# Entry
Amino acid sequence: MDKNKITYKIINDDAANITAGHTLDNSNVHEMVDIITALQEKQYKYIIIDMTALEFISSAGVGAFLGTVESSREIGGDIILFGASDDVKHIFDILDLLDYLVILPDKETANQHCKLNV
Amino acid sequence: MNTSIEKYNVADIKEKNKILDKNALAMDALAKLALQFTEDTDYSKLLNSLLFTIAGQMSVNNAFVIILHEGDYTSNQYYCGIGKYKNSKLLKSIELDENIINFFKSNSRPVTVDELEIEGKSANFLYKLLESEVSLIGPLVLNNEILGILAIGERVNKIDFEPVETDILRALVNSITPFISNTFLFMEISNINKWYLEILNSVKHGLFIFDKNLKLKKINDAGFQILKAVKSKLKSKSSLHNVSMEFIFTENTFPGWTKMISEVCREKTKKVLKNLKLNNGDQDMIFNIAINSINYHNSETDHIITIDDVTVLKESEQRMFELEKFADKGVMASSIAHELNNFLGLILGGVELTSIHVKKGNNEKVANNIDKLKENINKMQRFTAGLMDYTKQQTTKSKCSLNTIIEDVIAFLTVQKRYDNVNILTNLDSRIEPIEIDSDQIAQLLLNFLNNAADAINAQQNEFGQIIIRTSQDENSLYLSIEDNGEGIKDELKAKLFNHHFTTKEHGHGYGLVTCYKIIKNHNAEIDVKSTLGEGTTFTLKFPVTHD
# Structure
């Protein structure tokens, strides 16, 4: 099984969940962007990114969220990240993004943030 | 212990560590980008990777890159954007002029839009950048040339860019620019390759390119269809790549082709092999093959084989040949009808005279009239025998006496008005052997030559017109010559004699001598023309004689 495979699941009419693989960098950033963009085009307001398995994120991986997050916010939604390891969170920290992106500790918190009953 | 100093130091160290980490992240990003640019050839994907990396590294939502075409900054630009610039009209509307290019040539660092100091038409460019909230803009420089420009939007954390960050951006962009240039060249090459493949495939002739070892390098669609026509099991063009010529033009399907083609290839000359036949099981196919060798890199040679399926053309030619015969027949129809009427008039008169003599019981005159009737009927029979079967499709050869054909044709001609002022003489060698010819076609050939001779004499208004027909034979050939004392042919027109539609006659159609030439070819014969203007013309035909 491909450890870097990115999968997604529709939660309800407003939200969808994307599960990142072990790494998110140039090799699979296009796949992540394509999935996010496709969900945004289908008007899913909240895109919840499960980073539980993510061990490494590059600048390009971060750029994938930065380059797409505004589209979700324009329709009253957001891109919610959860389950990030300390190493991954450190990357967001050095890029001064902890306050800009919504990075939550776990799935439950992420769901609550989206006010979802799932 | 001075706690305030300690606090300051910790914060300072943290900040320095952050910068170091950020630099390390940039280095890692650069390494990954460089690797991707050397491994991937998808230009759009690569530029997107660059933009996402820069977005992440510089903490921005939006970025775009415009790649310029050398020498042309205003059109055919390649652009790519992420975030708000992804489908932005801005990228399509940006026009770069010399002012902008010169600015970036002297300022290779990324600059804020406020720092852009450009004038003239470039003000429009500046206004569009401001309107689109472009924050930093910088050139992609390679060998002191501007390859493109890269711009990013405002930072998401609203913190101004530090000089160290613009240095990182500059380092990232400058390091990756050579890769972008190379990838752009690869893309151009790839596009040229696609373009040239489309051209190859749009050529209606079969095109085969063999390398110096006569292995197939390239084949176009028409070439593959030619092979498919005789080798129906072939599945794809790609399966033929690097296959030897002898397996492409296999001996049992393309008999002798490989030998003939490879000989020309070895000589490295241009040559056209005409009318090569093969059978695809259903029908005979005819091809013309052009062979040309081209050199490249000083030592390598490719052999370009162009195969033209002329089966349909040859069929059309054959049909045209038949139509020409029908056309000739149409032209002759009225004079034939006239001559037949003449014969019928003579016969009818003879019958009426005979009837009168029968009633009078004058048996001697009756017998005499019947003899004359027989003679006229025989003439008419010979006249009609002189007419050929125009509808026959193929050349049917059999052993025939050329002299007999000549005599039959003359018998038919002499009663025609066109020959009123023409005396036809013969000098036929009685020793010539019967030869393999199509008697009808040879009769038609004679008719055409003799009619032309008579017309040339009439055009000269020569009251003592004369045509001399001669036959002779040597060991290998049989000769037939037709000499007239007509107006002759101008030197410059001799070469055009056998071209379609060539005629010097007011009402001519130009098919007669073309038909003659076709008949000559059908008999592997040769023709020689000697003519003096105002004195006359001699056509000499040379037929090969085969000895059993």
Notes: The domain at 7-109 of chain A is CATH 3.30.750.24 (Transcription Regulator spoIIAA). Chain A touches chain B through 27 residues (CB under 8 Å). Residues 48 and 80 of chain A are 5 Å apart (CA to CA).
